[in-house]
Design a protein that fits this description.
Oligomer: single chain
Number of helices: 13
Distance between the termini: 32 Å
Order of helices and strands: HEEEHEEEHEHEEHEHEHHEEHEEHHHH
Largest sheet: 7 strands, mixed
Radius of gyration: 24 Å
Strand content: 25-35%
């Protein structure tokens, strides 16, 4: 059962607390609770009877608290004011941003509203500005994967693609990669939608499709700015794909993302976007993919009762598969934090097949012969090490 936040009554005219002060404190308590819980997003969902507050914790939604009906609209209005949005406009979606400080940390908030039948839904993305500055090892990359990515980044030019669905950590990985580059010797520019993390020494542009500032138009103009390294937040259309290829072929290092099931699927996807195979072969340096799985709580994880069967099924005689239990440290969830699983494929040995317009099946066969582990294989290996569960790997794959 959900608890209801207790909201004090308006103070008397003689002095004291106002309704606005109460609403501000309520809104800030919600933000602090989300930060304390480690939420990536706070969802404020209007209902007929009030306002439901839910947190996204380790990729899954959890009910946090329900506010009574009199607090629904004031809290939503306070969120819009906080994000510098127009509180009089309730018919159209809006986007906003703000900065919130808690426990010495600086959080950038991305806020968005969307009209629903019971009022405006408000979603707040919490972005800890310390997150992107992580080593590849801290991101979960194996030593050989980190070495391959590092080698691709140190090259003078070429195309590096990272694939995965929304919320799989692609932005964090790419921004961590930017931290490894020499900002003094190279001119680095990013095109993002939106800018999530701000970096000193790197020029960042936020695309705004509503006014015609798309990835394609921004990239076309950026090529006249003489950058060395370009991060294109997402390759969404044929024009952006072809401009990225052109940039890579003319001496720029280009990093970008695609929504595909695995790294190799980027090749047929780019072909579908109109990229010629011989141009792709000439520019491609590395393909990678990643997913985020929930990490077992180290305090309470326990051996899986079907450990022997799992060992036999996955041919891992030394594996120790575990399952979630639940304890006070993880608030009874059995999981604490998330773990990235990766697939990293250097493109060098695939270039002849890509240039020959080989089908995906031939590319996958070469991947297996070269010993590049797939997302599934790396996920099962993480489960075999007791870091997550096979069920969690299956859920994201």
């Amino acid at each position: 059962m959900l608890d209801f936040l207790k909201v004090s009554r308006p103070a008397a005219a003689a002095g004291g607390t106002t309704v606005g002060d109460d609403t501000t404190r309520t809104f800030e308590r919600i933000l602090r609770a989300g930060i304390a819980e480690g939420a990536s997003d706070i969802h404020c969902e209007p209902k007929e009877t009030g306002l439901l507050i839910r947190f996204r914790l380790d990729g899954e939604m959890r009910d946090h608290v329900a506010l009574p009906l009199p607090q629904r609209d004031p809290v939503l209005a306070r969120g819009k004011i906080f994000g510098r949005m127009d509180i009089t406009e309730k018919r159209l979606p809006q986007d906003g941003r703000a900065v919130f400080r808690e426990n010495g940390q600086r959080y950038h908030l991305r806020l968005s509203t969307l009209p629903t039948v019971h009022g405006e839904s408000l979603v707040i993305r919490l972005l800890d500005q310390t997150m992107p500055n992580q080593s590849f090892a801290a991101l979960g990359l194996a030593p050989d994967q980190a070495e391959a990515l590092q080698k691709a980044l140190t090259g003078p030019a070429g195309l590096v693609y990272l694939t995965g669905p929304t919320g799989s950590g692609k932005t964090t990985t790419l921004h961590s990669a930017l931290h490894l580059l020499d900002h003094r010797e190279r001119a680095i520019h990013t095109l993002e939608d939106p800018v999530e993390y701000e970096f000193p020494g790197i020029r960042q542009t936020e695309v705004r499709e509503k006014i015609g500032l798309t990835f394609a138009t921004s990239l076309r103009s950026l090529l006249r700015q003489n950058p060395d390294v370009i991060l294109v937040g997402e390759t969404r259309d044929a024009e952006t794909a072809q401009l990225a290829i052109r940039a890579a072929l003319t001496g720029h290092l280009v990093l970008s993302t695609l929504h595909t099931n695995d790294g190799l699927s980027a090749v047929p996807r780019l072909r579908d976007l109109g990229v010629e195979s011989f141009l792709l072969a000439a520019s491609l340096r590395l393909l990678a993919a990643q997913r985020l799985v929930r990490k077992l709580c180290p305090e309470c994880k326990e051996p899986h009762p079907e450990n022997d069967r799992l060992r036999e099924t996955h041919r891992m005689p030394q594996a120790q598969f575990c399952r979630a239990a639940g304890c006070p440290a993880c608030r009874g969830r059995g999981y604490r934090g998330r773990l990235a699983i990766h697939e990293v494929i250097p493109a060098q040995k695939f270039i002849p097949l890509i240039a020959a317009d080989a089908p995906f099946e031939e590319l996958a066969a070469l991947r297996d012969r070269e010993g590049h582990a797939t997302l599934w294989q790396n996920g099962v290996a993480a489960a075999a090490a007791g870091l997550t569960t096979v069920e969690q790997v299956a859920r994201v794959l």
